[in-house]
Amino acid sequence: MMLWMVPLLPILAAPLVYFSGRRGGRIWVTLLALLAVTGVVALVALAIGNEWRGSYALNSVLVLQLELTPLSRIVALAVPLIALPILLFAGFHERPPLGRLLGIMTAFVGAMELLILAEDLLTLLVGWELIGACSWALISHYWQDKSAPKDAIQAFIVTRFGDLGLYIAAAAVFAGGGGFGYQALPGLDSSLMQIAAAGILLAAVAKSAQVPFSAWLFAAMAGPVPVSALLHAATLVAAGLYLLARVQPLLTQVSWLMPTIVAIGLITALAGGVVSIVQGHAKKLLAASTSAQYGLMWVAVGVGYPGVALLHFLAHGFFKAGLFLATGTAERQTGSYQLARMRLGARLPGIALLSAILALALAGLAPLGAAWTKEQIVSVAYKDSLWLALGVALAGGLSAIYATRFQLAMFGRSSRREQGPPRINWGERLAVGGLAAVTLALSILWWPEAQSWLRWGLGLPQVDSHFWLLVLSLVLVVLGILLGAALVRRDEALQQQDWAQSAARWWELVPLTREIGDAVMKLAHRLARFDAQVLEAATFALAAWARRTALGLARSDDEIVDASLRGSARSATWAARLNATSGEALSWRLPGSLTGLVRRGGHWARQAQTGQTHHYYAGIAIGFAVLLLILLLGAAL
């Protein structure tokens, strides 16, 4: 049960962070969030060392299960480690109040850990829903900006459509196996396995921003920079990839699934690379490159090497988060994310140097660790097909083009004279520097001893490298860097071309998803009006009719029933008086016992009229019971 503390610690700490932000200062609330996430790192390390497990039975069928696997260890450690510098940056970069922002980000870390540790689809769904809700809240954090809530809803609607697939998959697994455990997937019959695979694929495609769902990531850029760095570069989009990596060995019987994963990944890697090359908005350039890099990871999963995909996720998470934070620092100087307004190398030389390290990792230049993980994807792709390996290498060359363009446009030399000192604090410098330091440290992955340790510790298979492929890939990277430097000089002319404008809008997927989101919201508003004007009106009319009926029955009770009972009582009194006074004048006399009986009956009947509806219902029930008893006795006799 101790494993439950990994996700529960940040989730329980989130309200404390939120409320402390309303009363405490910037340093206090930031420190509290950092302590909570540091606790997650410590708990994950203890869980790995002690092989913790966790389960919670809701009943005999519904059981929530947590477990650490060799693959989940990578992601479970990476998420809080990436989150720490991002939270530090947020605490010193974003405007107060910070409690809501840092509190939800802390809760997101817990929800992501729950998703990673889940050993069944039911637990996975809980974490999946939580990260979706946190994403919506964080994208719309600055709700005063009218575009932010609209963009948050657009991103939410697109990803929610994909989430339906996960519910379908869970239903198929439950129908076939009577539970929700991952291990039930191989035992499903063919039709249910096909349904489960299709549902999982749909959910993963949408969450990882792969084609045709890539455009929602542009809408998500409406959120603050730390949100983009944590959710939409390193963790939220990783949920879909992780789900595929986790279940890939269990769904090898589905013949169409792995080729589909490879095709989607390669298409997204190539299309996203072109989008990044022509994109003039810094955050959207990084967002498109995120889709492209995750496309490469999808290729690795599709050819049967999920461990290689998660290693590239690890390297990508650190350098891409750092690039987003460097973008946030640059935007503070210019007030815009447009690359044409940047060129901040002279103003921010330290950040420019750190960004150069991160950009070269994105480009895949050796000896940085990200270059090694990318070359591993090229090698495993070659095991499947030469053409696939060449496509992956080409996608790597595209990444070198847009990484170079980003770096030179963002931190190149400018002819204009900047006014005043740069607006940057030590927290921002430390956050970007920490991510750049980890990116440099991952260069150890080129060392054969480190590779052997990885294979042993994570259970990764041996991947044979091919020297000619490595040379080809590095040549494409160098050519990409040179071409990217040349494109910076012609950037404005490039973006004015029709095809470039179409590509910058994700091949027109951006307006399409916006129209879909608007249509869904219009339908929701119309349904709300229908509910208010028709359903609620009918309900109120029925309630008014019921009230009028009740009042009418009450008047009938007063005017008829009570009157008849009073008449019975008066009759009994009149009969008693007549009996007492007529004496000898009448030839007959009512017995005294009969007179008392009539009087008591009338009194009892009036007492029964309490005006309480449940008393009437009880009387009716008793009457029916007596009638039923009489009928039963008659049938028996």
Task: Give a summary of the structure in a few sentences.
76% of the residues lie in helices and 2% in strands. It has 637 residues and is an all-alpha fold.
Describe the protein's architecture and organization.
- The protein is an all-alpha fold.
- Helices cover 76% and strands 2% of the residues.
- It has 24 helices and 2 strands.
- Strands 1-2 form a two-stranded antiparallel sheet.
- The longest helix is centred in the last third of the chain and has 74 residues.
- It is elongated and about 120 Å long.
Largest sheet: 2 strands, antiparallel
Number of discrete helical segments: 24
User: What is the helical fraction, as a range of percent?
Assistant: over 70%
Low-confidence stretches: 583-590
The separation of the N and C termini measures 67 Å
Please tell me what the overall shape is.
elongated
Evaluate the radius of gyration: 36 Å
Mean pLDDT: 88
Biggest β-sheet: strands ordered side by side in the sheet: 1-2
Instruction: Count all strands and give the number.
Output: 2
What proportion strand? under 5%
Structural class: mainly alpha
**Could you give the order of the helices and strands?**
HHEEHHHHHHHHHHHHHHHHHHHHHH
Q: Which characteristics define this entry?
A:
637 residues; mainly alpha; 24 helices; 2% strand
